[in-house]
Amino acid sequence: MLTRMIALVLDEHNQLEKAINGLTRPRDMDNVIKLFAAHAVDEERIMQEVKYTDFIKHRHIHDSIVNTLKDMSLDIDITELRYNVLQLITNHITDYDMQLLNGLEIEHVRRSKED
Ligand SMILES: [Fe+2]
Question: With 29 labelled, which of 36, 45, 78, 79 sits at a CA distance of 20 to 30 A?
Fold first, then answer.
């Protein structure tokens, strides 16, 4: 179950990356926000499932990212908008999500070796 959820979240990272790269009109932001919010819910489910110690902090960051995305001005150059969104989301994935997921992988391997 956990393995499937990790795979889902990793797949969502790819979908987000595609959506951001496909951000060519301001209204494409709706799709990025929708995907990120859905991704956050799935990731928070994993964190609750494994009783992740940084759950509250990570959830706050998700909320703050969704608010930042919603508040972004769409009245700027689309390339700049795409760059800003990419930075915001990829930094989160690298700094927080991968820390969570790598920790879970290690724990998963450790447990399976104990069996
Ligand atoms: Fe996250």
Answer: 45
**Domains with residue ranges and CATH for the chain:** 2-114 (1.20.120.50)
Q: Collect residues with CB below 5 Å from ion ligand 1.
A: 43, 97
Q: What are phi and psi of 73, to 5 degrees?
A: -70, 130
CA atoms within 13 A on the CB side of 5: 19
Q: How far is the CA of 22 from the centre of ligand 1 (A)?
A: 21
What is the Cα–Cα distance from 26 to 61, expressed in whole angstroms? Answer: 24
Q: What is the pTM of this model?
A: 0.90
Q: Enter the DSSP assignment of 25.
A: S
Find the 88 Cα to ligand 1 centroid distance in Å: 11
